[in-house]
Amino acid sequence: MILKALFFIVAVVGSTILIARLTFTIPEIEGRIDTTVLPKATSGPLAESLIELEAAHEGLTGIAPLQSGADAFAARILLADAAVSSIDAQYYIWHADLTGTLLLDALVRAADRGVRVRLLLDDNGTTGIDTEIAALVAHPNIEVRLYNPFNLRTAKILSYGFDFFRLNRRMHNKSFTVDGRATIVGGRNVGDEYFGTGSTPLFVDFDVMAVGDIVPQIAAGFDRYWAALSVYPADLIVGIHKVNDPIGTRLAGFKGDSQMSEYKAILDSSNIVAALAAGELDLEWTTTVLVSDDPIKGQGAVPREDLLASRLKNAVGDIKTRFDGVSAYFVPGSGGVEAFATLAARGVDVRMLTNSMEATDVLPVHAGYAKRRKAMLESGVGLFELRSKAAPDARSNRLGPFGSTGASLHSKTFAIDGERIFVGSFNFDPRSTRLNTEMGLLINSEQMAQKVHKAFDEGIKGLAWRVEQRDGKLVWIDSNTGSVSTSEPGSNILRSIALTVVGWLPVEWLL
Question: Could you tell me which residue ranges the PLD phosphodiesterase domain spans (predicted)?
């Protein structure tokens, strides 16, 4: 009787999934015309300043860190306003909040001037902006495409129920390239929490603006994703319908908002792009390597040697003395623990900064990290966990190379041997390794690498707990006061139970 009931349940669930897959299908992309990157602009403020600079630094990349959220926001807006020929933007999340709307408006302004705009978004991060996407698509100078789009536009999450294995693969890349001359790459998505102001929890994050040798490589990488099999023209997904000006209407809703005044002040006070155009921006000219996943990763299995993690390992080469990493979502798994232990056994000083339980925005990910915490400490890895703190001053640089103090860590970077630094979208977790597509820059920069090492040497300036194991038990040490806590910061009964249960489940590969 029980077997019959189970068989019936399986049959009903299987039939429901099959019917849903047949009913809510994704359209075919046969006949899709794939545009390609335009030649570098030869006029306009960026070209006029950079042509001579690039010629004087042939084969090198000019790097300017975008440490604070304010600088990162201003750089994107002001680059868009300086564009004369093209903007190619690729993001995992684009929120329907103030900064998301301001950046959409900047893209429209550029398109109105005749700039060709291509916007590639992961559909997991487009909630609430279908109408805005439709308006962009209607503009003759704007193309929008969606990566692994959801079958349902309302209650999108239900699509996972019948198309899980496709939708579980996401495009986590972030880049913003203007006129083929300047680009922004790093960990920030588009939304208020990534740009350091507003009432949302602030994310500690890190980007760089780059010019010179690396820009054509990033542009070519954008083209590979633009033409990928997992990418669909947005009009096939959100439909073509008459819209007035949803972006302008949404923006008008922020009129009089104090946050609008704050962002206007940021733009008025920023001289990043003006300094770049005038040839006065303090750029570090160096060699840089682009490390990126093949977009075919969105279709399924990819040979291990072709994964970004493998390519990054080969690009990094031997690590001799120091490895300091920052990963918002740190789930090392057994393989990561072994790799870090091997480094530590060779005498490499290995230290990692991630979110504490009180700071994390994804508790299951913290569970994946917590189950490996003791093993890492026993192997000699130093662990720091960012404290959840109020951030009244969004432009504070207390955390040095990791940006302004915030409530939750989102940065993905690491420094090696005081010589090189990686900045990008890659987290140390199974999702970044096997499921999502990722990208980043490996930069030869003693200046940037030493800043990261110094921040760790100084205990992350007291903004993180140092985790140790004493008498077989974990303790969290406040480097400001030296006080020691035997209770995990942010824990309570429900969270502790959830942490334990998730740790038992075979879901580490999903985290």
Answer: 167-194, 405-432
Which is catalytic among the residues 223, 417, 461, 478? 417
Q: What is the pLDDT of residues 28-53, one digit of tens each?
A: 888 899 999 999 999 999 999 999 99
Range of the structural domain that residue 439 is part of: 289-510
241 is catalytic: no
Q: Are residues 370 and 476 in the same domain?
A: yes
- Taking the C-alpha atoms of residue 318 and residue 390, their distance in angstroms, rounded to an integer, is 39
DSSP state of 211: E
CB burial of residue 199 (10 Å; 0-12, 13-18, 19+): exposed
Q: Does 295 share its domain with 216?
A: no
DSSP string, 308-340: HHHHHHHHH----SEEEEEESS---HHHHHHHH
Q: Does 410 participate in catalysis according to the annotation? A: yes
Q: Which of 88, 122, 123, 179 is catalytic?
A: 179
Task: Verify whether residue 179 is a known catalytic residue.
Answer: yes
Query: φ and ψ at 185, to 5 degrees?
Result: -130, 145
What CATH number did the domain enclosing 133 receive?
3.30.870.10
| Least confident interval from 122-126, 306-310, 419-423, 428-432 | 306-310
For residue 137, with 0-12 CB atoms within 10 Å meaning exposed, 13-18 middle and 19 or more buried, which class applies?
Answer: buried
Catalytic site residue from 97, 412, 429, 453: 412
Of 40, 95, 172, 371, which is the active-site residue?
172
pLDDT recorded at residue 5? 65
Q: Is 156 a catalytic residue?
A: no
Which residue of the set 293, 410, 429, 453 is catalytic? Answer: 410
478 is catalytic: no
Q: Which of 95, 174, 297, 371 is catalytic?
A: 174
> What phi and psi, each to the nearest 5 degrees, are found at residue 91?
-145, 150
Q: Is 57 a catalytic residue?
A: no
Query: Could you give the dihedral angle defined by the CA atoms of residues 93, 98, 103 and 105, in that order, rounded to the nearest 10 degrees?
Result: 130
